[in-house]
Amino acid sequence: MTDLAQYPPGRDTADPDPAVPAGASRAQPGPRPEAAAVLTRALVRNYGSRAALAGIDLEVGRGEIYGFLGPNGAGKSTLIRVLCTLLRPTSGRASVAGYDVAEHPREVRVRIGVALQEAALDPRQTGRELLALQGRLYGLRRAEIRRRLDAVLDLVDVGHAIDRRIGTYSGGMKRRLDLAAALVHNPEVLFLDEPTTGLDPDSRARVWAEVARLNTELGITIFLTTQYLEEADALAGRVGIIAGGRLVAEGPPEVLKRSVGADLIVAEVDGTDPDALDRLRRLGVVDAATMEHGRVVVSTGDGPAALAPVATELGRTRLGVRSVTMRSPTLDDVFRELTGSHLDTEASPP
Ligand code: ADP
Description:
By secondary structure, the chain is an alpha/beta fold. The chain has two domains: 38-252, P-loop containing nucleotide triphosphate hydrolases (Rossmann fold), CATH 3.40.50.300; 262-328, THUMP domain-like (Alpha-Beta Plaits, 2-Layer Sandwich), CATH 3.30.70.1510. Helices cover 32% and strands 25% of the residues. It is built from eleven helices and 14 strands. It has helices spanning 76-83, 105-109, 127-137, 142-155, 171-183, 201-218, 229-235, 253-260, 276-281, 303-316, 331-339, and strands spanning 38-47, 50-60, 65-69, 91-96, 99-100, 112-115, 189-193, 221-226, 238-243, 246-251, 263-269, 288-292, 295-300, 321-327. The strands form three sheets. Strands 6-7-8-3-9-10 form a six-stranded mixed sheet, with helices on both faces. A four-stranded antiparallel sheet has the order 2-1-4-5. A hairpin with a 2-residue loop joins β9 (238-243) and β10. The protein is elongated and about 75 Å long. Mean pLDDT is 85; it is low at 1-28 and 345-350. Adenosine-5'-diphosphate is lined by residues 47, 52, 70, 72-78.
């Protein structure tokens, strides 16, 4: 996740003046505590002629957990790198904690914590040494580092392993250590790029619990990207769904899911019948009916009332119905309705 070689403040790709140390930038414009934690307007980032971000407008308030959800290649990492000042916008603008990422990258950097996907942790260091180094990179004094380490280790449970070499850590422990490293300088906004990708379900749940705690106990704004709809559901107060570099939907998970319908009736089928969907739609209790990959999905405002008529009508078609189940919509259903494809196979309902 945090790449220390790449991410000490004042020493990275977008900084025009790498010699200026952290903390030496206080003469810049005054802080704007009233400003949004994250604000982007018509934000575009191209790689060559290809747009990884094709005009993103979003606003994240202070104290929110905002989940940026999308499949592989959608543009999530690109956005987080632009917000963290590691990549410059091609056009449009972005500001974090009240500062423009292109005009005042150092002001942004001292106010954010970052845990990127590729953990570049030195296996020979102990966890405590890594955290102390991170504190020094941010210009903290020795006593301050000790205080911050105590505070951070209260929040992120690395246990006795903190004095062991990082080479002995499990994947989940490394993620939590990286989370702790991102918090050493007491940031206002925490960026997490796919914080649990590759973790087993237990480790994933522990990281979720710690992220939620950081938000409730410290009030820290958290901006996280994920390809797991459960992760967005479990953590985020608001979710932005991205596909092909565009924001296709945004809102609280519950609201997004309700937009698909109160209930879904899903039938697994073997055959085809070109008239089947129209027949279902004519039932009156059906809001929408779609068919894909051997599955008919019916959305309805009242599942219990619709189930019997839908099942009966399905039985009259030539679809060859194998099973009929009813369930609540997921964020994957929202994504499917908007884009016609699924978010990811691992986290999608069967
Ligand atoms: P995500 O994080 O959602 O998986 P990315 O932001 O990594 O998506 O990628 C968005 C798009 O930009 C993809 O099409 C990807 O192939 C492309 N891309 C990402 N990084 C680079 C790069 N360094 N050079 C060229 N294309 C890139």
